[in-house]
Structures are given as C-alpha cells and as structure tokens.
Design goal:
By secondary structure, this protein is of the alpha/beta class. Helix content is about 35%, strand content about 15%. It has one domain (about 30-210, about 290-374): Rossmann fold (3-Layer(aba) Sandwich). The strands form two sheets. A nine-stranded mixed sheet has the order 3-11-10-9-8-6-7-5-4, sandwiched between helices. A two-stranded antiparallel sheet has the order 1-2. The longest helix has 15 residues, at about 215-230.
Length: about 375
C-alpha cells in the first residue's frame, strides 16, 4: 500500500502532493533438479475455501515480547492446527509488508493447509511485523536490518513460540517478507527446510518507480520526515492513506487483480489498521525504500542463487502484478536457486484474493519437498 505522491526534481528539494489521488504506486545439503516452471489457473474466482471446520480448532492468538534495544515490543501471532493433532511440523507465514500488512492475508491459506490429510500434520504460525498489523508500533527507525533481526529473533530466540523447530521450519513469505527471509538465510542467520516466495518484491513503492538517485533519496527523506512528524505527519497520513476511499482505490488498482473481489469488509478491516497508535512509522520507511532488503535486481537474483542445492525455493509469480513488480518476478523464471516457478492469478496479494489456488500450490510444494521425505 503506498501514498499517492509526485516528486519533482529541481535544484532544491521540493515535494508536491496532489489534491486528487493518482494511480497508487505500491510495489509492492540436498541437490535439487532443474527448475520446474508451471502455470496455474483457476475458475474459482473469489470462492470461499472448503474447509472441514470440525477438524480444526479455533485459531490460537497470542503475543510474544520482542526485546529490541531499549524497547519491549508486543508481537501479535496466530497458530492454526487441527484439533487434538499429534506431533506436527511448523510453517511460518509472514505477511507482505505494506501500510495495511496483516496476518489476515494468510488465514484462509493456513486453515486450508492444516486441515489436509497427509504424511505430515502441519501447524501454521502467522506473525505480524513490528510496526504493522496488530503488533505494537513504536517510533523506531525502521529499516530492512531491523525487520530481518526481528524475523530471525522470532524464529531462534529461546523464548520464541517456534524456537524448538527453528531448524525444521518451512517459511512462506509475501512481497518483501520473502526477500528478507532469503537474505537472512543467505547470511546463515536462519535455517529453513523450504521457502516459498509469493509475489516476491524488493523495491519500495517510490524507489521502484523513481529510482535511487541522490536527488530522489533527498526527497524520500523529506517525505519520510514529514510523515513521522507529530502533527503534520498524521494529517498527511490521514489525507493520503488512512481513509476508506484511498484504501479501496489502491486495492482495486494493484493489490487485487479483480476489483470485484475488493469487499467493504476488507476495506473496513484495513482502514481500522491505519488508525492504530503509531500506524504511520513503519509504512513511511517502506514507502521510501528503507525496508528494501536489496538495492538491485542483481542482488535480488543473488539471494535465490545462493539457495541452490541448499534449500528448495518456490516462486509464485502473479499474472496481474503491476508492470515493474511483475518484471522482477519474471526475472526469477529459470533463475538459479529457484527450484519451482509457478504463475498464479492475482496481483500483489494473491494469498488473500485467491487462497484456494495458493494453498493448493503451496501444499504440492510441501508434498514434493517435505512429505515425500517424511
């Protein structure tokens, strides 16, 4: 989710914000065989998942306290599993980073996967990023390193809800979350049995459109500072992001592929997130590129290449992504380290818009790489 903003280059830094909304600029030890490329299709549209609710217990919601510098940050997470399930393997599902990032985007996929009958009982944990979703939103200097440290700590910290399975974990990430996961894996900060990158991105909304020249970085800093300011920051945030019309417009233009799938309930839910205390701090960093895990396509591809022969990685590219984001996803087709590439319906949030299709593809990935070896 991005702010509508126009930047003009000139001899002195300036920032002009339009009075009318323009089109938003959201970005948005085994050896494996040659990359497999497939194309998925669906005729289900916005159908609801067919889940046997009797086999599922209610989602367990809880919070974990992340100790970061002088902060104690309450992190919201959910656990989805079958009722009275025996021993199970864990999947960590990490939301796409945006103004309205939330665990809600993964719920239907989680419920679908955990109710399936196979060689492995799956337990899904969905976690909100610090500064986003239902987690606390302190006024941190958010950047990609902070988000990476959080993700690693949530997995390996002794008091983490999943630390006992830190070396036997599957990670599903959307957008920037997938790229941050891969960056952490490349540095040896976390170990995973498999990783799925759903509509992966690496550049924030403004950098992917306007680039990273020094003059633009100056303007990004100006906008970021304004958004973080005590009074004018909220005013700008409320005008450009925290209103239902702006959220609906953004979802219909590029977050969802089919505008008819954007329901009033979705808009209301996301609008409520923008009203939480401290809501603007992390999005201000994302919008202006501070949460970008890499700085170029070459670095992006290198993260995947480093997984070759180490971790199976699946990429789900979407048919309806914005042009620039789509180009980055397409660059992964046949790329080193990508063990499977699938094109699916959707735009930047396919796991929420087409959960049946995404759950099916992800479950096949689990069967091919985990269950067959169980």
């Amino acid at each position: 989710m991005a702010l509508s903003a126009i930047f003009y280059t000139s001899s002195s830094p300036s920032l002009t914000l339009p009075s009318k909304n323009h089109r938003p600029i959201f970005s948005h030890t085994s050896c494996f065989s040659k990359s497999l490329i497939v194309k998925a299709s669906t005729t289900l549209g916005n159908s609801k998942l067919s889940v046997d609710d009797k086999s599922l217990g209610p989602a367990k919601t809880s919070s974990w306290q992340w100790k970061f510098k002088d902060y104690l940050i309450n992190i919201y997470y959910e656990e989805h599993e079958k009722s009275n399930s025996d021993s199970s393997k864990n999947i960590l599902m990490v939301p796409t980073i945006s103004d309205v990032s939330t665990v809600e985007e993964w719920r239907s996929v989680a419920r679908d996967i955990v109710q399936r009958v196979g060689k492995v009982n799956w337990r899904a944990i969905i976690v909100d990023w610090p500064g986003l979703g239902y987690s606390d939103r302190p006024k941190l200097d958010y950047n990609a390193d902070v988000m990476e440290k959080f993700l690693v700590d949530f997995i390996i910290a002794p008091d983490s809800p999943i630390s006992s399975s830190a070396n036997d974990l599957v990670v599903f990430g959307g957008g920037h979350a997938a790229t941050i996961t891969l960056r952490a894996a490349k540095q040896g900060l976390l170990k995973a049995k498999a990783i799925a990158a759903v509509a992966p991105t690496w550049a924030g909304p403004l950098p992917i459109v306007f680039g990273r020249e020094s003059s633009m970085e100056t303007r990004y800093g100006l906008l970021r500072g304004t958004l973080r300011a005590p009074a004018v920051g909220w005013m700008m945030y409320n005008m450009l992001v925290s209103n239902e019309k702006a959220i609906e417009s953004q979802y219909k233009s590029h977050v969802y592929a089919n505008p008819e799938n954007v329901t009033p309930g979705i808009v209301e839910s996301r609008y409520a997130l923008t009203k939480r205390k401290g809501a603007r701090y992390a999005p201000a960093a994302f919008l202006t590129g501070l949460l970008d895990p890499v700085q170029s396509r070459e670095e992006f591809l290198a993260l995947f290449a480093d997984m070759e022969g180490k971790i199976p990685v699946m990429v789900l590219s979407t048919e309806g992504s914005p042009k620039r984001s789509k180009a980055e996803m397409e660059a992964l087709k046949g790329a080193k380290g990508v063990s499977k590439f699938v094109e699916v319906p959707g735009a930047l949030l396919p796991q929420e818009e087409y959960p049946i299709t995404i759950a099916e593809e992800l479950y096949w990935f689990l069967q091919e790489n985990i269950e067959i070896k169980a």
